[in-house]
TrEMBL record:
<comment type="similarity">
    <text>Belongs to the class-I pyridoxal-phosphate-dependent aminotransferase family.</text>
</comment>
<dbReference type="InterPro" id="IPR004839">
    <property type="entry name" value="Aminotransferase_I/II_large"/>
</dbReference>
<dbReference type="InterPro" id="IPR015421">
    <property type="entry name" value="PyrdxlP-dep_Trfase_major"/>
</dbReference>
<dbReference type="InterPro" id="IPR050881">
    <property type="entry name" value="LL-DAP_aminotransferase"/>
</dbReference>
<keyword id="KW-0808">Transferase</keyword>
<keyword id="KW-0032">Aminotransferase</keyword>
<dbReference type="GO" id="GO:0008483">
    <property type="term" value="F:transaminase activity"/>
</dbReference>
<dbReference type="InterPro" id="IPR015422">
    <property type="entry name" value="PyrdxlP-dep_Trfase_small"/>
</dbReference>
<protein>
    <recommendedName>
        <fullName>Aminotransferase</fullName>
        <ecNumber>2.6.1.-</ecNumber>
    </recommendedName>
</protein>
<dbReference type="Pfam" id="PF00155">
    <property type="entry name" value="Aminotran_1_2"/>
</dbReference>
<dbReference type="InterPro" id="IPR004838">
    <property type="entry name" value="NHTrfase_class1_PyrdxlP-BS"/>
</dbReference>
<dbReference type="InterPro" id="IPR015424">
    <property type="entry name" value="PyrdxlP-dep_Trfase"/>
</dbReference>
<feature type="domain" description="Aminotransferase class I/classII large">
    <location>
        <begin position="33"/>
        <end position="381"/>
    </location>
</feature>
């Protein structure tokens, strides 16, 4: 046996990589699994994007290695999106770097900026990849709590009082996954000011800004952000292209160049057909987002009915692809409860502990399945709960 590298002792296989294999194992033609776990949009991208991919793939000249920085039309499309959606001006030549998804960008950024032992601030609860990658590069993890009492906002006063001298990088993610919390411009400004004062890099991971959110915002639009901030973004959620792996990083030229140094040693560019498709998808206008958000708003109503049945409580105005909800106090072990529902009904719901200790009493329901499926999930859980109660009362009577 060859010994694995020490660094992988610091991480575990991604929760969904393990759990979804288990969930898939329960799927049978008689009773399909209803997966309310993962935020992978179930609808197709716009037809112009699909057509562009097909046309491009038919051209024999389009199958070679590509430029590491992506084609100019893609960078221009992303710059246009920043102007139209976030009212933010970016130079497409120097301030945008297309990536194969934004998740990969988390590793690129840590490789480019974080030395062993330097501190990385990570939201709790938060996307688990921030901490896994920080561990992989040998950084010192420092979580900051998002507090339910602050409606899941950052306790900025607590951060200000703490020693930030060794912090190299802070991850923020607004609209936040899993809580659905958005940040106001003033809150983002306070965070940017803190990063400037203590000279650390602040990165906003922004893939949910266009989903159920009236005021999409980029951290790069905040005054003073240009010298200390970067942003990750992608077409995964907003354009139904999660499996296509199209994302980007945006910010100051020198920072983009540093990330390119890492990235150009790790991949050999994005397939041209995908880039052509992305250029088309980026042309989607108001009607696309209106119809997408109408669909998610309807699903959210059905998801809330399911949560009501489960006795959960939740904030009304959550952005993004999920509903984050607190489990009832009567449930002692959330993971066990989730598994009981999974094995009793074949409905999979994400337990909140995977997003950090602050998520321990919570669950997350994805809006990436139809209203009919959410209603079917509700129906199954209702029947399961009723039969459990019946069995319990039989036991008591016996
Ligand atoms: C907070 C957050 N960031 C980043 C990602 C990665 O998205 P992608 O790599 O598809 O752009 C996800 C995906 O679920 C996410 O929830």
């Amino acid at each position: 046996m060859i010994q694995t590298a020490n660094r992988i002792a610091s991480v575990e296989e991604y929760y969904f990589s393990r759990k979804l294999a288990e969930v898939r194992g329960l799927d049978t033609p008689e009773l399909r699994v209803i997966n309310l776990g993962i935020g992978s949009p179930d609808q197709a991208p716009s037809s112009n994007a699909i057509e562009a991919l097909i046309t491009s793939a038919k051209n024999p000249a389009n199958h070679g290695y590509q430029n590491y920085k992506g084609i100019p039309a893609l960078r221009k499309g992303i710059a246009d999106l920043y102007k139209n959606i976030y009212d933010t001006q970016l130079d497409p030549e120097s301030m945008i770097l297309p990536l194969m998804g934004s998740k990969e960008g988390i590793m690129h950024i840590c490789m480019a900026f974080v030395n062993e032992g330097e501190e990385v601030l990570i939201p709790n609860p938060g996307y688990p990849t921030y901490s896994s990658v920080a561990n992989l590069v040998g950084a010192k993890l420092r979580t900051y709590d998002l507090k339910e009492e602050l409606n899941w906002g950052v306790d900025i006063e607590a951060l200000k009082k703490s020693d930030l001298s060794k912090v190299k990088l802070m991850w923020v993610n607004f609209p936040h996954m899993p809580t659905g919390r958005t940040a106001s411009r003033a809150e983002l400004k306070e965070l940017v000011d803190l990063a400037r004062k203590h000279q650390f890099l602040i990165v906003n991971d922004n893939p949910y800004s266009m989903i159920l959110n009236d005021v999409p915002m980029s951290i790069l639009s905040i005054e003073g952000a240009e010298d200390i901030a970067l942003e990750l973004n992608s077409l995964s959620k907003s354009h139904n292209m999660a499996g296509w792996r199209i994302g980007w990083i945006a910010g100051k030229k020198e920072y983009i160049d540093a990330v390119l140094k890492v990235k150009s040693n790790m991949d050999s560019g994005m397939f041209l057909g995908l880039q052509h498709a992305a250029v088309e998808a980026l042309k989607n206008g108001k009607e696309w987002f209106t119809s997408l958000n109408k669909m998610y708003a309807n699903r959210k109503k059905a998801a809330k009915q399911l949560l009501d049945l489960l006795g959960c409580s939740y904030a009304e105005n959550q952005s993004g692809l999920f509903v984050w909800a607190k489990a009832p106090d009567t449930i002692k072990d959330i993971e066990k409860w989730i598994d009981e529902i999974l094995y009793g009904t074949k409905v999979f719901i994400t337990p909140g502990f995977i997003f950090g200790e602050a998520g321990r009493r919570y669950i997350r329901i994805s809006l990436c399945c139809t209203v009919e499926m959410l209603q079917e999930a509700l129906d199954r859980i209702q029947k399961f709960t009723a039969s459990k109660q019946l069995n319990q009362s039989k036991t008591v009577t016996a």
